[in-house]
Amino acid sequence: MQVELVLLILALLFFVSIMTDKIGNRFGVPALLLFLAVGMLFGPDGIGAWFDTDGNGIGYMINISSAQALGTIALCIILFSGGMDTKIKDIQPILVPGIILATIGVLLTAVITGIVVFYVFGWLHAVAAVTLPVALLMAACMSSTDSASVFSILRTNGVGLKHNLRPLLELESGANDPMAYVLTITLIGIVTSGKADVSALAIIQDILIQLVMGAVMGFAFGKLVVKILKEVKLSNESLYPIMVLSACIFIFGVTYYLKGNPYLAVYIGGLIIGNTRFIRKRQTKSFFDGLTWLAQLVMFLMLGLIVRPFELLSLKVWLPCLIISIVMIFVARPITVLICMFPFKQYKLRDKMMLSWVGLKGAVPIIFAILCIANHVPNANLLFNVVFACTLVSLIIQGSSLSKVADKLKLAMPETGIEQKLVYFDIDLPEEIQKQVRELEVTNEMLVNGSMLRNAIIPRDYRIVMIRHGESFIIPDGNTELHPNDILLISSQKDAEDAQRALEQAEREELEDIKLRVITDTTGVIKNIWRKMKGEDK
To answer: Mapped to the 3 state alphabet, what secondary structure does 437-504 carry?
Structure first.
């Protein structure tokens, strides 16, 4: 295909995918699921078939090799950005249970699901003959909670959870992909080599080496990158985010060749870099926010393009998919959570139920299934279709109902501890004061004492930094005139919620004072009238 046509098609795919986000917000459907749907719509069984002239049409732009490469790059960026956004102070209280869920939890999920998969395919003789190693491999592909799905749904929808459950889920989803990757790669080696007698000790040893090397490499190179960022002064500020992106890819590559786990390394590297101050940190984080969404869009769109929807409708795919999905959602994940969280008495039953429900699947299981096809695993195509279908079921059932389940379990709460996004003032602020700066719209109630700034009903601990009137920006003083719908850029030592409560309290107190003055004045008038009436009577 011509380069210009490819670019035109990609732009159309991206635009349609982005616009579906509004539909997702309206109906509570995860945006990532809609990205998949757009890819499937333009894939070989959809509109893409219309453009298939020589097997190179729109639905045939992506093959297994390119999908594997793009998926690896996208997952690398998503994990690194997730590490940068994770605050160490937030995960310290839940570090131990998070690590247990990300390691032992993944292993237990894989074992329980693998046994179920083996017996399900054995029971469905007409589907396929699947050996126990292949069944365990399929389960390993689906054993992790997908970081892209969890980060996207929790953060985009503003879902807050009580009892530190949200940072626990984000830590688990960011840190458990490495464990699932090690299990998948190890089982692929066993299946393709035909050696069923590999010792469990050798497998455990290999897993430990990869995890330890990945953690050490991520920590060491993260510290090195931070030191470089602090020491090197670049003439062009735009190069700092690109330097950090280069560091992310370097950490991934060097860890891979040192036989460590590259996914764990980039997550820990991002965690170290994101929790350290350096030049243009806010600009870098904004850059990675956009890059992460691009990676998620590319990854899910790409996966939608390579799948064949008509194959998913086959009995040999959807029947085992439904059974395996039910077992994973309602049996394997709950049992795993109950076992892993048993030592931690601070988590009640409803907390564990919530943790069980957020076992979201996403692009990672599908990418692992692509690895199986690339390595010529027996029944790899069937394995890929079943994993893809199970992912769709998870996103539809669990992803769409996450907020409702949190409400039912009485664990939902407004988000706290995050900075307010500035909409009307496009300015760059240091990270330390982001939570103290916000925007406030002027209302009629704030101007009942007069339109001058000094008369406005604003709590004393607010400092008015700037005023936006229409398209004009004003540096204020006490005599500045305010108008309804003006936007104030304010700073306060209190966080956003305390500041809002203070404003509402100030408005209530002022209105009560006005009511009291009205009542007092009215009473005085009535008394004067009464005196005059009595005097006239006399």
So the answer is: EEEEECCHHHHCCCCEHHHCCCCCCCEEEEEEECCEEECCCCCCECCCCCEEEEECCCCHHHHHHHHH
Q: Are strands 437-441 and 487-491 parallel, antiparallel or unpaired?
A: antiparallel
C-alpha dihedral sign at 440, 442, 446, 451: positive
Task: Report the DSSP beta bridge partners of residue 490.
Answer: 438, 464
Q: What is the pLDDT of residues 455-501, one digit of tens each?
A: 888 776 778 888 888 888 888 887 888 888 888 888 876 554 454 55
Token pair of 92 as six digits: 């310290």
Closest CA to 469 of 453, 455, 457: 453
506 CB contacts (<8 Å, ≥6 apart)? 457, 458, 459
Q: Tokens 């956009």 belong to which residue?
A: 290
Residue 189 amino acid letter: G
3-state helix, strand, coil in the chain (%, to 5): 70, 5, 25
Lowest mean pLDDT among 42-51, 78-87, 366-375, 430-439: 42-51
Read out DSSP for 182-201?
Answer: HHHHHHHHHHHHT-TT--HH
pTM: 0.74
Quick one: which of 365, 370, 324, 374 has its CA closest to 140? 365
Spatial neighbors of 244 by CB under 8 A, at least 6 apart, are 225, 229, 273, 284, 287, 288
- Cα 166 to Cα 188, 216, 327, 354: the distances in Å are 33, 26, 24, 10
